[in-house]
Every structure is written in structure tokens, then in C-alpha cells.
């Protein structure tokens, strides 16, 4: 597949997509590393055996590793690095993690003092109020936990509804338990929209570190009669520009020779909180608009490549 990157100061690039992230082998640390991004800027990507996460801030990365939510041997990449590098091979990150995880000296044992005389007893109404606060705090945690586990299905349903609102019919839906694959078709002009959806947080703790984000790949496809010629020309044009992992905003080209469709697709991260509230109220007009502008951009790109 070939690809062009939009956004930032990058020159156009082309990519080959991979279905899973593989942590790279240890790299030499003899060469100086580029300066780390500011601590509060989400600019660092993290690769683990469970998949790729980010972008996240430096503070979120350090907190995630210190709390055990991210592995200590994870690989990282940010603007300026030539390739992925393990945390332990990056001198500045290694030092910051060591300071973050430094043991804290236990305070001296408190001196035993006689218990003070019991104060005045709380009133019945005050004890009822305190008990009510305990119950409310329990419900708050329960609702957060339920939301973290159920927002995945709610978001998928919202994407389906919003795509139907754009004039497409759902023709296929599959899932491997982690990634969800949706395929739609416009019954008037036979154009297609494809999605690959993967939510990045499945617990309140993960959501606190990473936010309720989803990795979203949107594809737009059209059936062409001369697919072999077009696909061969595109592969020849892009063959010298492949990279291993597309960044957000990277548009890739793919083809389904069996069905005669050629696709343009883009990788993005969508904030589920922009569309689904904690009470599960969904902003369908906003999501439908974002689906529409994504398809519009991919259609323009595809027509620019095949016409």
C-alpha cells in the first residue's frame, strides 16, 4: 500500500500497514537522542505487545509505567526519533523513570499516646448524611466502571447510526474481540465506507491515563473496471516510499482485487467523549459530520490518484 501524510512539518510519506505492533530490538544509545517533548503536550507514542497507544503526554507516560499500567520495557517514539526505542535505552527517560520510582523512606513509627476522651456524639441526621456520601461514592465508581466497559459498544452503535445518516447501508460487521470491522455501501452509486475501530481504555484507571480514545481507521472505496492497471501503476509509484507504521493523518491506498474495489483510508484517534457523555447521551449530528468530512477528504484523495 502507498500512503501520503498530512499535517505537521512532515514531507509526504508512503506506508505499509501492519496488523500488530512488534517491540523493536534494543538499539544503540551512543548517538544523542532528540529533546523530549514538553511534559504536558500529547506527542509520545507507546508500543507494547498489546498494541500501540498515544499520543500521550510525558507525564502520562511516566505515571502509566510507575503504576504498572504500561510495561517498563515498552517502546516509544516522538518527533525527531529515527525509530522506536525502548524506554530503558533512552537515557533521559530512564533517569526520569528512576526518579519517579525511587523508594520513599518510611516515616518513623508514631508514638503511642493515650486516647483522647470521646467527643460529642454525631446526630442521627449527620450519621445518615455521612452514610449517604459513602453510598454515593460507591455509585460514582460503579458508574465509571460500567461506562469504561460499555462505551465501546455505545460508540460502535453511534458510528453505525451516523454512517447510515450519510446515506450508507451496513453490509458487514465482524469483531475479533479487540478490533471491530464495519463495512457500508451506498446502494445508489455502490461506493463503500470501511471502519476499523479499537477503543484504547477498558477501565477507569486506563481512561484516567489515556482518556476515552479510540483508534479509528476510515476507508472510502469505489469499484473500478481497470483495477489491475490502476493498482499496478500505484504500486509502482509508491514502491520506493514505504515505512512501517502510519502516523495519524496518513492516507493509504489499498485494493480488493476480488471485488474490484480500490480504497483510500486514513488512521486517526477520536475522543469518544466528544460524542458520548457519561450518561450515554450521544451527539449524533457531530459524529455524522465528522464521518462526512472524513469520507469527503478520502474521496478527493482517491479521485486525485486514479483519475
Q: In words, what does this structure look like?
A:
There is one protein chain. This protein has 307 residues and is of the alpha+beta class. Helix content is 34%, strand content 22%. It is built from six helices and eleven strands. It has helices at 58-66, 91-100, 124-165, 204-210, 227-238, 284-306, and strands at residues 3-5, 44-48, 51-56, 75-77, 85-86, 169-175, 180-185, 192-199, 213-223, 250-256, 261-271. The strands form two sheets. The protein has a seven-stranded antiparallel β-sheet. A four-stranded antiparallel β-sheet has the order 3-2-4-5. Strand 4 (75-77) and strand 5 (85-86) form a beta hairpin. The longest helix has 42 residues, at 124-165. The radius of gyration is 25 Å and the shape is flat. It starts with a strand and ends with a helix.
Q: Could you give a quick summary of the protein structure above?
A:
The chain folds into 2 domains: 20-100, Dna Ligase, domain 1 (2-Layer Sandwich); 145-306, Yope Regulator, Chain: A (2-Layer Sandwich). Helix content is 34%, strand content 22%.
Largest sheet: 7 strands, antiparallel
Question: What would CATH call the class of the largest domain?
Answer: Alpha Beta
Sheet/helix structural class: alpha+beta
First-residue to last-residue Cα separation: 18 Å
How confident is the prediction overall: mean pLDDT?
Answer: 79
CATH architecture of the largest domain: 2-Layer Sandwich
Question: How many structural domains does the protein architecture include?
Answer: 2
What percentage of residues falls in helices of 4 or more residues?
25-40%
Q: If you compute it from the alpha carbons, what radius of gyration comes out, rounded to the nearest whole angstrom?
A: 25 Å
**Count of DSSP-assigned helices:** 6
Q: How many β-strand stretches?
A: 11
Shape annotation: flat
Assembly status: single chain
Give me the strand/helix succession: EEEHEEHHEEEHEHEEH
> Main sheet: which strands, in order across?
1-10-11-9-8-7-6
> The CATH topology of the largest domain is what?
Yope Regulator, Chain: A
> Any low-confidence stretches, pLDDT <50, length ≥5?
1-20, 25-30, 240-244
Strand content bin: 15-25%
Amino acid at each position: 500500500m502507498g500512503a501520503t501524510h498530512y499535517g505537521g512539518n512532515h514531507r509526504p510519506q508512503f506506508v505499509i500497514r501492519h496488523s500488530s505492533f512488534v517491540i523493536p530490538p534494543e538499539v544503540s544509545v551512543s548517538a544523542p537522542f532528540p529533546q523530549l517533548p514538553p511534559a504536558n503536550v500529547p506527542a509520545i507514542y507507546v508500543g507494547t505487545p498489546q498494541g500501540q497507544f498515544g499520543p500521550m503526554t510525558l507525564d502520562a507516560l511516566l505515571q502509566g509505567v510507575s503504576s504498572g499500567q504500561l510495561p517498563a520495557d515498552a517502546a516509544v517514539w516522538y518527533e525527531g526519533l529515527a525509530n522506536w526505542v525502548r524506554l530503558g535505552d533512552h537515557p533521559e527517560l530512564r533517569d526520569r523513570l528512576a526518579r519517579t520510582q525511587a523508594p520513599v523512606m518510611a516515616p518513623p513509627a508514631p508514638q503511642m499516646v493515650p486516647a483522647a476522651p470521646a467527643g460529642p456524639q454525631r446526630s442521627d441526621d449527620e450519621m445518615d448524611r455521612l452514610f449517604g456520601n459513602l453510598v454515593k461514592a460507591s455509585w460514582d465508581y460503579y458508574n465509571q466502571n460500567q461506562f469504561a466497559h460499555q462505551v465501546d459498544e455505545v460508540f460502535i452503535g453511534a458510528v453505525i447510526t451516523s454512517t447510515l445518516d450519510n446515506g450508507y447501508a451496513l453490509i458487514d460487521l465482524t469483531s475479533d474481540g479487540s478490533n471491530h470491522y464495519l463495512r457500508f455501501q451506498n446502494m445508489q452509486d455502490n461506493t463503500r465506507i470501511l471502519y476499523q475501530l479499537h477503543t484504547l481504555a477498558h477501565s477507569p484507571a486506563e481512561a484516567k491515563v489515556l482518556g476515552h480514545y479510540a483508534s479509528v481507521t476510515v476507508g472510502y472505496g469505489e469499484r473500478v473496471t481497470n483495477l489491475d492497471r490502476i493498482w499496478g501503476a500505484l504500486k509502482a509509484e509508491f514502491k520506493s516510499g514505504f515505512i512501517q507504521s502510519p502516523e495519524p493523518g496518513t492516507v493509504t491506498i489499498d485494493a480488493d482485487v476480488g471485488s474490484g474495489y480500490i480504497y483510500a483510508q486514513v488512521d486517526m484517534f477520536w475522543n469518544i467523549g466528544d460524542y458520548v457523555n457519561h450518561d450515554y447521551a450521544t451527539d449524533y449530528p457531530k459524529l455524522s459530520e465528522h464521518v462526512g468530512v472524513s469520507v469527503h477528504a478520502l474521496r478527493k484523495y482517491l479521485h486525485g490518484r486514479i483519475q
